[in-house]
Fold:
Amino acid sequence: MMEDRIYSNDEVATLIGFEITPKALATWPAVTLPEACIAEAMVWATQGSASDEDILHVKRARSGFRTGWGVVTAAIEKNEDASVVLLN
Structure:
């Protein structure tokens, strides 16, 4: 498992360019979204624009890297025809 720390842009580019597979994502650190994202979701919830499930989704840890400017996350979703990599 990789360490949760601040990664440089070059490190992130190398890691993302190497491969994004379920096996690779399993080695990435588990990170949470920045507090500002969580706070915004909480505002949406008070306005009735976000459900409890939405809030749990925003708060959950996910595979990714923290950088000096934010967080990069990735997930793989499978549907009937193909797998889709979601990179945020």
